[in-house]
Structure formats: C-alpha cells, structure tokens
Design brief:
With 244 residues, the protein is of the alpha+beta class. The protein has 7 helices and 4 strands, in the order E-E-E-H-H-E-H-H-H-H-H. Strands 1, 2, 3 and 4 form a 4-stranded mixed sheet that branches. Helix 1 runs antiparallel to helix 2.
Length: 244
C-alpha cells in the first residue's frame, strides 16, 4: 500500500509500502491489494496533534478496503475491485479536519484462485446434499402421515417387524402431511377434514352412509335456498296485488 501526500504543510510523501494481503469472503483466501492514496489536513499549524497523517490515512483506507473485500471471493476480482474503489475513492474523514482517499488494484495468485474454486465446489456440493436431505424428509413425512402409505412403506422396509405397526401408529399420531405453500389454505383444511372423515369411517357401508348423508345435506341446503328465494318473491308479488 502506498500513500502519496499532497505537498502542503509536509516535507514530502509518506513512505511507500508493498502490496498487502486482505481477507476475502472465503476463509484463508486473500486478495493482494495495492492502494495509492492521498491525504490532507485542513487548517493544521505546526505538528499534527493526531500523529502522522500518512499512518492514519493508510490505516483508514486499509480498513475500508478490508470491509468491502469480505463480501467478495477472489473469483469475483473485477467486481471486488470496482467495489473497493467506490468505497475508498470518496473522501474519508477519520478525524476532524483530515481527509483521505485512494485507488486500489487487486491481484490474486494461482493458489488463492485454486482454493476458492475448491471452496466453491464444496459449497455447491453441500447445498445439493442439504437439498436432497430436505426432499427425503418431506417424502418420509408425506408417507408416514398417510396411514395407507405408511403401512405399505413399513411392510417394504421392515417385513420382519409387522408387529411394530401399532406402536408406529401411536408414535406418529400427531404427524401431519407437509404443508404445500402453493395450495390454498382453506382447500388444504377441507382436504384434511375429508381425509379424517374417511379414516373414521373405514368400512364400505359406513362410507356409503356418510356419502348419502352428505349428498342429502347439500340437496337440502340447495332446495332451501331456492325455496326461500321463490317464497320471498311470491310474498312480495301477493302483497303487491292486495287491495287497501
């Protein structure tokens, strides 16, 4: 990192230092950064009470560059360099009356790029593994929440432990199917209600009685609504024909 002072109230430019390693978003992978900066102290007479301005400017620019780089990997070199320059090109004011700004160049060695590629590969592999695990859990939840599918799945997985089915049913008594966010909530509730009714009425005769009662109820409601509408119309018509 190098800082070139403005020749105002200073005998010469501050010392020039070599490129520094600043951390990226990937652990143990760094950018090599060269910053050319400048600083000025407004209204300072004699010795600067805050210490060497070059040291403060260098520290401030390094700090702002490091904060920016931790959001990028070395595989995003161009974007990282643009972001750093945008952050440090604007005047920085660490203390009253002091202004510093700079321009940065970033470099990445082959080892750092290889490490970043390996990190990215492992990160993507981990994402895929977590996604597969989530899908498997949802699949199991859907099967175990359905009594019929649960029974078939258990027979397939543990054919020698059929006697454990009652215990499994007790253990999974409050398990619900996975929630599908794409479905309407009311429709989902109705579906669960109907499923519960069908579970309660297991025999074919019981389900037939339930279906007949349900159909008759809907017909009664429909006829009642039509009759009420016609009856109201008839009453209004009769009232209109009556004399005084």
């Amino acid at each position: 990192m190098s800082l070139f002072a403005r020749r105002r109230r200073r005998p010469g430019p501050p010392p020039v230092t070599s490129g520094e390693r600043l951390p990226s978003r990937v652990p143990s992978v760094f950018f090599t950064v060269h910053i050319n900066g400048s600083w000025c102290v407004e209204g300072a007479d004699g010795e600067d009470p805050y210490g060497d301005p070059a040291v403060r400017a260098r520290s401030r620019l390094r700090e702002r560059a490091a904060q920016t780089l931790t959001r990028y990997t070395v595989l995003e070199g161009a974007a990282a360099q643009d972001a750093v320059n945008q952050a440090i090109a604007r005047p920085l004011n660490p203390t009253t009356g002091f202004v510093a700004h700079g321009v940065a160049e970033l470099f990445v060695d082959d080892r750092g790029r290889s490490l970043a590629l390996e990190h990215l590969r492992r990160e993507q592999e981990g994402d895929l593994q977590r996604h597969d695990a989530y899908r498997h859990l949802v699949f199991l939840q859907r099967i175990l929440a359905d009594p019929g599918l649960r029974r078939v799945w258990w027979i397939d997985q543990h054919p020698d432990r059929l006697g454990d089915l009652p215990d499994l049913k007790t253990a999974l008594g409050d398990l619900r199917p996975p929630h599908d966010s794409d479905r309407d909530t009311l429709r989902d509730e109705i579906g669960r209600f109907v499923d519960q009714l069908l579970d309660d009425f297991r025999s074919l005769q019981q389900r037939e009685v339930l279906l007949r009662a349900f159909t008759q109820t809907l017909r009664t409601l429909g006829n009642g609504a039509r009759t009420g509408s016609w009856g109201s119309t008839a009453r209004h018509s009769t009232m209109g024909l009556r004399g005084p």
